[in-house]
TrEMBL record:
Residues 1-20 form the signal peptide. This is RagB/SusD family nutrient uptake outer membrane protein. Keywords: Cell outer membrane, Membrane, Signal. The keyword Disulfide bond does not apply. Pfam families: SusD-like_3 (PF14322), SusD_RagB (PF07980). It comes from Mucilaginibacter celer. Belongs to the SusD family. Residues 51-229 form the SusD-like N-terminal domain. InterPro entries: SusD-like_N, SusD_RagB_dom, TPR-like_helical_dom_sf. Residues 302-504 form the RagB/SusD domain. It is found in: Cell outer membrane. The lineage of its organism: Bacteria, Pseudomonadati, Bacteroidota, Sphingobacteriia, Sphingobacteriales. The keyword Signal applies. GO terms for cellular component: cell outer membrane.
Length: 504
């Protein structure tokens, strides 16, 4: 059975592996081990192990709170976009005046720990099951990988050199998740998990058709490169980026716009995505669609691009029309050709809309979009990490070591129809990351934080297509705002074991 169907139908027995999330207490307090109390009726055989592996992906089908809108609100804090609609909690996040109690903060936090708990259950229990060794290794590799991805996202958002992010003790799952001393400790743990995952996982091209969307070897190497980049270990960031590049398993597509087409969900540029379909997974495409979709579909109208982002593109950059719809642009929508905005009317505060995820909405009859406009998922996989970013990770790692990063960065530029550059600087790299990955999960806000640029950039207002201010300048204090507030309810429940990040 295909992974998409496994996820959308939720085949994992929730009474066995899933966590009870309806309690009033905080998430971390509710994380209980599933292996021991259910040992009499679970963790018995290969079928149980496979069911648990399926459960690692099931939470991605929470189209709202993980890879729908929830986690994207942190990315929305950047200068590339504005909220788009009145929403106090989301506006507070963008303005860095949130508390951590907001549902848009707490829900993604909660789900990350739920998924990490599931991964730990697999890691702790599957080794003892008598089953085919290759299948066991594949299941364990998936668990180490998924845990690492969830952990990295939490570490980037909540960890600093002064205080790390909380982490469940894998050897003692009954213990309350401990706050690690530094984010460096989080990164070290993540690196170990990803190396273990890479040693157990097959290459993507060795996966069966029904296993597409599951973890694979080069995805583990890719996240190792990203983790080392964030940890400022540029030697190893380059090393593992090269592991992906030299594997011969990946290549850029010739046409940038083709990356975001359903037919290319698993193209040579694919490394890791949210495997989506009409029944669930990421609603990001629908969340970015015009509010009410000009009467043809229930778009949400969030995450509207800014003039600052549009102006960042060079003349002739093919990525601009593939990334953003501007006034006068022609586009396909439900089987017909329209000019943006349709009928000259738009609810966009900026006068722009992201175009990257519009392909599912181009087909007549809406055959690739959910019939439920309140949950506007599509058949388009939403990329979380793709090959172009690996090239840019390599280039950045080389530049930070004082090496020449031209070769990697120019592969991305030439594909975009631009001339190669020589002796690329960090400024060049920052530009390429912004325009190549705009509107994606690469997290522009975190890039600005790790580069030390956030305070200066956020001190300026953001503008719409007509030049008017659509978002006022913001007060960003790096001593506080480089990380986000840990949800206070979990701090209270921890009885002193968790400490709030400084200043929040």
């Amino acid at each position: 059975m295909k992974l998409k169907n496994i996820i959308s139908k939720g085949l994992l027995a929730v009474t066995v592996v899933a966590l009870a999330q309806s309690c009033k207490k905080g998430t971390l307090d509710n994380i209980k081990p599933t292996g021991t109390p259910t040992s009499a009726n679970f963790w018995r055989n290969a079928d149980d192990a496979q069911a648990a592996a399926n459960g690692l992906y099931e939470k991605q089908s929470n189209s709202e709170d993980l890879y729908g809108r929830g986690f994207f609100w942190f990315i929305n804090a950047s200068d590339d976009m504005v909220v788009g609609r009145t929403s106090a909690d989301r506006e507070n996040i963008k303005n860095f005046v949130c508390t951590g109690n907001e549902g848009s903060i707490y829900a993604p936090w909660q789900l990350h720990f739920v998924v990490m708990k599931r991964a730990n259950d697999v890691i702790n229990n599957v080794p003892g099951i008598n089953m085919d060794a290759a299948t066991k290794n594949f299941i364990l590799g998936q668990a180490y990988f998924i845990h690492a991805v969830m952990h990295l996202e939490i570490a980037d958002l909540y960890g600093s050199d002064k205080q790390g992010a909380p982490l469940q003790n894998r050897a003692n799952p009954l213990a309350f998740p401990a706050q690690l001393p530094s984010v460096k400790d989080n990164y070290a743990y993540i690196e170990a998990d990803l190396k273990k995952a890479a040693s157990l996982l097959p290459y993507f091209d060795k996966l069966g058709a029904g296993d597409k969307g599951r973890a694979h070897k080069t995805a583990a190497w890719a996240y190792l490169a990203k983790t080392y980049l964030h940890a400022k270990d540029y030697v190893n960031a380059e090393k593992y980026a090269d592991s992906v590049i030299l594997s011969g398993k990946h290549a850029l597509l010739n046409n940038y716009a083709d990356v975001f087409k359903i037919a290319n969900n698993y193209s040579s540029e694919y490394i890791w995505s949210v495997a989506s379909n009409l029944n669930g997974q990421s609603i990001l495409p629908g969340a970015m669609l015009e509010n009410k979709g000009w009467g043809l579909y229930n778009g949400f109208g969030y995450y509207q691009p800014t003039k600052e982002l549009v102006d960042e593109f060079e003349a002739g950059d093919k990525r601009l029309p593939a990334t953003i719809l501007q006034k006068g642009d022609s586009f396909q929508y439900f089987g017909q050709t329209y000019t943006y905005p349709i009928g000259g009317k738009s609810n966009s505060l900026t006068g722009y809309q992201f175009n990257k995820y519009m392909e599912p909405f181009s087909y007549a009859g809406g055959i690739h979009v959910s019939p439920n406009g309140d949950e506007p998922s599509t058949d388009l996989n939403v990329p979380l990490l793709r090959y172009a970013e690996i090239l840019l990770i390599k280039a950045e790692a080389q530049i930070m070591q004082g090496k020449n990063g031209d070769a990697a960065i120019n592969l991305v530029r030439v594909r975009a129809g631009l001339t190669p550059i020589t002796n690329a600087t960090l400024a060049n790299l920052k530009h390429e990351r912004r325009v190549e990955l705009a509107g994606e999960w690469s997290d522009r806000n975190f890039d600005l934080v790790r580069w030390g640029d956030a305070q200066a950039i956020y001190s300026k207002p953001l503008h719409g297509a007509d030049g008017s201010v659509v978002w006022k300048a913001r007060n960003f204090d790096p001593a506080r705002d480089n990380v986000w507030p840990i949800p206070p309810k979990d701090i209270q429940i921890s009885q002193g074991q968790l400490k709030q990040n400084a200043g929040w």
